[in-house]
Amino acid sequence: MYRKICTIAIVVCFLIPIVVFAFADAHHIQDDDYFVSKQPYKQGWMYVELAKMIVPAKPETKNEAQFMTVREGEELWTKYFFKTRIATVAECKVGTVVICFNDNVKDEVYHAPEDKDSARSGSWFIAKITDMSDLYKGYLTVSGGYKIDKDNLRVSLK
């Protein structure tokens, strides 16, 4: 009986961190993270902020949700928010809207964040894929003429 209780206690201790903390992907973006902006994305490129949802969108709030930005702690109401995941190269094509990390540029190519701190305090932007012809070199081009590493692409889930 003692052995069974100890085994259960050990299993529970290992599961607590998994339950308490949000899972993060290879870009260090957590399950409950969103990218938000105060205005809609139309063309070119535009900065977006990493944020946590405080109040979900509903008809009573004119379909706006309340967020707190991760970097500055600013609270804002907006209907322009994106829950994202890492994109695969297979789903990317000209015209696809993507979100990319801005603060890791090497040889004029924008790469994914290298660590959690830079991902969560750095800048991100939204743009459209405009050219896939350099994919064999490991990057593609988005609006604004920016070269984006194939591993630095996020797509919206909604």
Description:
It contains two helices and 13 strands; from the N terminus they run αβββββββββαββββ. It has 158 residues and is α+β, with helices and mostly antiparallel strands. The chain has one domain (22-156). A hairpin with a 7-residue loop joins strand 1 (33-37) and strand 2 (45-55). The N and C termini lie far apart (50 Å).
How many domains? The number is 1
Share of helix, binned: 10-25%
Q: What ranges have pLDDT less than 50 throughout 5 or more consecutive residues?
A: 16-20
Q: Class by helix and strand content?
A: alpha+beta
How much of the residues is beta strand, in percent?
Answer: 35-45%
Head-to-tail CA distance between termini: 50 Å
Which value, in Å, is the CA radius of gyration? 19 Å
- Mean pLDDT over the residues: 91
How would you describe the shape? globular
Number of discrete helical segments: 2
What is the N-to-C order of secondary-structure elements (H for helix, E for strand)? Answer: HEEEEEEEEEHEEEE
Number of strands: 13
State the major sheet.
Answer: 11 strands, mixed
Question: Helix and strand layout, with pairings?
Answer:
Elements: H1 2-20, E1 33-37, E2 45-55, E3 65-69, E4 75-78, E5 80-82, E6 84-86, E7 97-101, E8 105-106, E9 109-110, H2 116-121, E10 124-131, E11 139-142, E12 146-149, E13 154-156
Parallel strand pairs: 9-12
Antiparallel strand pairs: 1-2, 1-5, 2-3, 2-10, 3-4, 6-13, 7-10, 8-9, 10-11, 11-12
Summarize, please:
The protein has helices at residues 2-20, 116-121; strands at 33-37, 45-55, 65-69, 75-78, 80-82, 84-86, 97-101, 105-106, 109-110, 124-131, 139-142, 146-149, 154-156. With 158 residues, it is of the alpha+beta class. It has one domain.
